[in-house]
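Quick log. Single chain, no ligands specified.
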Amino acid sequence: MNNILFLISALFTFVSLYGSLYGQHQTHLQERADKEKMQAWVDSVYKSMSFDEKIGQLFMPVVETNNGNKPKLNDYICNQKVGGLLLSKGTLSQQAELINYAQSVTKIPLFIAADAEWGLSMRLSDAPDFPKNMVLGAITNDTLLYLYGKEVARQCHEMGIHINFAPTIDVNSNPQNPVIGIRAFGSDPENVARKGIAYAKGLEDNGVMAVAKHFPGHGDTSEDSHKTLPTIRHSSERLNEVELIPFRKYIEGGLSGIMIGHLNVPALNTNGTPASLSPNIGEKLLKQEMGFGGLIFTDGMAMRGVAKQSDLSVKAILAGNDIILGVPHQANELESVKAAIAKGIISEQLVEEKVRKILSYKYILGVHNFKPIDTAKVYEKVNTPGAEWLKRKLYDNAVTLLKNKSDLIPINELDAKIIASIVIGETTPNEFQRMLKKYDNIRTFQLSDTKGLEEIEKQVSDCNLLILSIHGAQNTEDETLQKLIKSKNTILVFFTSPYELEGYKTSIENAQAVVLAQDNNPAAAKSAAQGIFGGIPLKGKLQVSAANFPLNTGIETTKTRLAYNLPEEVGIRSETLAGIEEIAREGITNRAYPGCQILIAKEGVVIYEKSFGKFEYGISSVVTDETVYDLASVTKATATLPAVMKLYDQKKIQLQDPLRKFVPETRGSNKANITIRELLFHESGIAPFIPYYTSAIDKNSYVGPLFGSKSETYPAYYAGAWGRTDYRFRSDLISNQLSDTFDMPVAKDMYASKKMHDVLLKDIIDTQLGSRGKYTYSCLNFMLLKEAIENISGEDLNTFVQENFYRKLGASTTTFQPIRYLSINDIPPTENDPFFRKQLVRGYVHDEGAALFGGISGNAGLFSNANDMAKIYQMWLNEGKYGGERFLSKETVRLFTTTKSNVSRRGLGFDKPDPQNPKASPCGKKTPSSVYGHTGFTGTCFWVDPENQLIYIFLSNRVYPSRTPNKLSSMEIRERIQDEIYNAFTK
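-> predicted structure:
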């Protein structure tokens, strides 16, 4: 008998819950539930409930998140027996503390809801700030919306939240809508449906109920239901063709929650009753006709669109709602419902049906398995690198290119462009301009409005491309703006919603390109800048019609340059690279270097770019990503070698060519027949080093040896020896005055004559020659290669690489003689030289030989920051292409980057790992043998890994204040960091 009663009860519950009477769709959450266990839990809880507790399940009050609300919260839970809470405002830890308290004092586990349309930041100030729906509506890849839903659900789980009042799937067909607007995905009902369903499925697949709103559609009104009762005046045919499409598809998609709005919809309900209180809309349309079988919520009942109605809660229950949200005077409403039940207005069967339905979803969503939240860790658990990556990814895919005359975007031919960025709406350099400057040397200006444009127009008179950006809602265009845009090639960028475009129609017409970044957010700024320069492809489609651009306008572009994102972009978790910072700071603590710069790029994306320490020990400038370092021997592979590769590509030089062919001074010497290949492999037999400065010193200016034991005569310790300082330089070679004769900078107030070049070259050529074909590393090899390059090209090495590589790449900090082109404030000092230059070297090359060549040499002299270096190396990984331009042929790149010596670890101009002798290898132990790169004496290196599409750059001034001791090497800082990178691949 008991079994029969149980079966009858279960059958009744099944019919009530799953809507067989009305042909209602079973939701996916219901389908996935263990029905037997769920039913047992529901029955057990329901039987234990008092009448008041059953009524209380139908109510969900709104509570602001602060500790002062605990008495009110206690009243709601203990006295009014509410079934759930919508917590609003505050911080993550504040809300977590309140949730812990609420669940600890309740008898029946509470539903915790969030009004998190664009993530928890909609209500909680320190949660990740995801894009609004209007931004997301521009994304063509709906999978990203699904991932977004999953991530928001993950954050909800960390906070003990079970229900998210999202997505908004209103079709915003009225640009003047004051309450929906950017909360909608756009004006296309099909796109709104796709986006809303993808987001909702992401939520529910990760165990959080989605609640679509505001049924039957709040998109076409110019009134705000928070302030009045808006009227939707469309016919039922129009409602079916537009407003109801997303809700219908949402229901067919098996999603679980819907919120009914406070709307007057005469076509569906003729008596003026708000939709939230109308049985015609809730019971008849939503449940019976459309077959919705999930939970139905009212919109907030304190809103003026409904608040003046009598018997609010009774009407809401009879209209089909399961949970009544945020009623004013909660206690009164409870009594009103109890009275309606006593009078038979609301049947006890209806109450039981709704309560059991609510309890079923509580079981499905795991409300009964609450675990207290660790309030001390909740911030870091919610604000993860993965969340930040997803936010950036969403903005990346939302940026929309509306106009692109002459394929201006992505910008190419940087060497022919003089670019200025003018920001309107912000008065300090912003993230957009900072990211633009990653790609080229761009002038930047900021204005609060258009009033200062006339003055800026004069300052950009020589520019041939303007990037003019509008940040936030402005007072629309004026004649000054229109005139400036018409006078220059201009990319017009809007950091606004698409509706703001209407105020700029003339400027849009005059501009060569128009970009809609969708939002004035730092993440949107990064995305827009990268899209303009080809760091990311542009894929967005216009989600509404705006400024003569029809719905779905969007020009797609391709990726041509480096992007900048988190490691998650290439499948690496940020936390797996955390050990890099520890190693970098260990080096600073142990005075291996005062500061450093580290960059990692993988698969065309810069995933790690951080700077540590200072220019000098003690009080000093802080190292930033813009800091420019002396690269030392990295010059060989970053300047001299690319020049050789270019000449090889042009068939102006061959690897077997003898040196005498290009450097006539070698003819008749023992260097004449040395080949280019031997120089690149360091198999020429040339001496490793000569004391370059000795020829510059007047030997008649002192008596005795130049070096000796420490004493008054030999007070200067330099390069491992004690030197005298009472010598003079030859007056025909060195001067402390710049002139036509002495025009090669050696150091501050120190210049070499043109004759110095000839003397040094002769010194190099006159050196004894060792065994050719045997590996002996020598800077002299690359000094001679520089002579060959200049004689072939007719240009100095700096000019040649600038014209053929750096300017085209946008590597604006990569240069010889940086003191001529860059601010000294961006260049850390290298060594305090007490012997040769008798000064702290800063802004001039550290290497003595390169210095006497005027700072332009084949072995050293190049300066750069890591970001600009990465462009060169990415060009190699791209087999000679970058920024839409070809720099080198595939064949040349492959030849030079893959060829390896038969007698050493060396490549053609590159250094390589030495797996046979790990202790002598310049790389980490986990580095593949295909890697190529170079190290520099000043504490620099780069390594390019074609197998993993990886670039690793480390820059420092480890020779400050002295080159000894070399703790950078003894501590294996560079190698250990490299191993950390490879370790991250497997974690």
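Residues 1-22 have pLDDT under 50 and may be disordered.
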